[in-house]
Design a protein that fits this description.
The chain has 479 residues and is α+β, with helices and mostly antiparallel strands. It has helices at 17-33, 74-83, 122-127, 133-140, 156-164, 166-181, 190-193, 195-204, 207-217, 241-250, 295-301, 307-314, 358-361, 382-388, 392-407, 432-444, 461-478, and strands at residues 8-13, 37-42, 54-57, 60-63, 69-70, 89-91, 100-103, 106-109, 114-115, 118-119, 233-236, 256-257, 262-268, 273-278, 283-286, 288-291, 318-329, 341-343, 352-357, 370-378, 415-426, 449-451. The chain is built from 17 helices and 22 strands. Flavin-adenine dinucleotide (FAD) binds next to helix 1, strand 17, strand 21 and helix 17.
């Protein structure tokens, strides 16, 4: 090991899951490789975690941001195992795996065997009132419609309408997939978000055929379920913040600097150093920098260093969403809450785009005899934006009005907590992957510089963790 004069400095900007992972990995790997490195994390807010935020009150465990991560993408699960918190995993309730979809003011269960956009079981699909007869017949045509030629990017709406018809899009895929990305399906790149469906078309031609084959292969893995495959989703018994709190606790004392917004960067090629300018007028020097921020923020910071990179970053659109957590006496809710929650197609013209029955989805999230509900408002598009821009009390009023009607709620909630996430969800529009290739090529021209976060190659927590791991290894290769 060398003395302090040849120790390198790394600054990570942004303390969400991507930035925390970058710091943690920079530290563990530099120690492993014997690289003398000091790491600092600069976070604008007075807490780390970014979108991930759990609170507890009166026996409730309340998620103000994400509430699960998918375990099929390996990076989150692997990191949790390494951190020794896998014993705190909490899976979703296996007994109530169905979800509901709203049609003309009524909630109907998503038919058994249905996966995001298409059915894999015949009779539940035939019987469901979610689609009209003509809609069902049109979906059946997927069995015979030929493959598309060419490889150009296609929107979620374009793909589903072409293969399964308009109703499959408006009545189920838009609320289920659009809901995950809080996105407008006509803009969403299928290649960047759901490439598995493109693969299905390539391999099986028909999506229904592919899902039936997958169901047979998994020998019941997808059968008997509806909507999302909940058994694949994990949280922690004390909520998602377990992950970010653990990461933060593993960083050395003094590594995290809270309440420190960064305003711009400069690079001095002679000294091969970065100047990091803080909003309070102070300045810090570093050999390596990682920007783990929403792309629009990163765009502001790199304006003088690389106007071209800044412009590309600024062209990634973002959507806003709000989460409203509400606690009710169980006897005040008429609906049996026999599922994970419901989604709302845009054509239903409601303020709520979805609602999770959190105390059903997970055990011990509400006191006995109480129910915890979590409604989503906002998303891309003028309607979602208009609802997001309402005041918190107006949002609660609107959500309550709709929940009273849809779930037969009688009394007032014990509490209603609104968490607004302005411009937090990157929108992977058509051509997104090409744009990211371009951004990465421009970023590689900057020495000791890396990007991480949800703007690039996946918005989910495992993807953000992967982006942090990649950023750390890029910086260590440079250093
Ligand atoms: C409401 C909501 C629900 C979601 N649900 C799920 C889910 O259930 N499962 C799932 O896998 N994913 C979900 N996601 C997506 C996932 O949670 C996010 O993509 C991920 O947490 C983003 O992490 P990040 O580190 O990239 O960014 P962020 O969490 O946004 O962190 C960025 C950090 O940078 C800080 N910052 C910003 N500007 C500056 C500056 N100038 N200087 C210093 N610091 C700055 C911010 O304060 C913030 O802490 C959800 C996202 C949202 C918003």
């Amino acid at each position: 090991m060398s003395d302090s004069s040849n120790r390198k400095q790394a600054i990570v900007i942004g303390g969400g899951i991507a930035g925390l992972t970058t710091c943690y990995r920079l530290i563990t790997e530099s120690v492993k490789r014997g690289i003398p490195l000091d790491v600092k994390l600069l976070e604008a807010e007075n807490r780390v975690g970014g979108a991930i935020h759990t609170s507890k009150q009166d026996g409730y465990v309340i998620e103000h941001g994400p509430d699960v991560f998918i375990s099929t993408k390996p990076w989150a699960k692997a990191l949790c195992e390494e951190l020794g918190i896998a014993d705190q995993f909490q899976g979703t309730n296996q007994e109530e795996r169905r979800s509901f979809v709203l049609r003309k003011g009524r909630l109907y269960p998503v038919p058994d065997g249905f996966y995001l956009m298409a059915p894999a079981s015949f009779w539940p699909f035939v019987r469901t009132p979610i689609f009209s007869w003509s809609g069902k017949l049109r979906m059946g045509l997927d069995w015979v419609i030929p493959r598309r030629r060419g490889d150009e990017d296609e929107s979620l709406e374009g793909f589903i309408t072409r293969r399964l018809g308009k109703e499959a899009f408006t009545r189920i895929a838009q609320p289920m997939i659009g809901g995950i990305y809080t996105a407008d399906g006509k803009d969403l790149s299928l290649k960047a978000t759901m490439p598995q469906f493109l693969e299905m078309e390539k391999k099986h031609r028909s999506i229904i055929k592919a899902l039936v084959a997958r169901k047979k292969e998994s020998q019941g893995g997808a059968s008997g379920t509806s909507g999302a495959r909940y058994s694949l989703f994990l949280s922690f018994k004390d909520g998602m913040q377990t992950l970010t709190d653990t990461l933060a606790a593993r960083l050395p004392d003094g590594c995290i600097q809270l309440g420190t917004p960064v305003s711009s960067l400069n690079y001095h090629s002679h000294e091969e150093k970065w100047d990091v300018h803080l909003a309070n007028g102070e300045q810090m020097e570093s050999d390596l920098v990682c920007l783990a921020l929403p792309a629009h923020r990163t765009a502001d910071l790199v304006k003088t260093v690389s106007p071209v990179l800044s412009e590309s970053l600024a062209s990634i659109p973002y959507a806003s969403s709000a989460i409203v957590n509400l606690g009710f006496r169980r006897t005040d809710v008429e609906h049996p809450l026999n599922g994970m929650g419901f989604v709302v197609p845009t054509v239903e013209e409601r303020s709520i785009i979805g609602c999770t029955f959190s105390s059903v989805k997970f055990t011990d999230r509400a006191p006995a005899d109480y129910a915890l509900l979590r409604a989503y408002v906002g998303g891309a598009g003028s309607r979602g934006e208009a609802y997001f821009n309402l005041s918190e009390s107006e949002i609660v009023e609107s959500v309550l009005r709709e929940l009273h009607e849809l779930l037969g709620i009688k009394g007032d909630p014990q509490f209603a907590l609104v968490a607004k996430h302005p411009t937090a969800m990157a929108q992977y529009h058509l051509g997104h992957l090409d744009l990211v290739d371009e951004i990465e090529a421009q970023a590689r021209k900057l020495p000791g510089f890396a990007l991480a976060g949800n703007a690039y190659r996946g918005i989910g927590i495992p993807d953000c963790i992967n982006s942090g791991e990649q950023a750390a290894s890029l910086l260590l290769e440079h250093g």
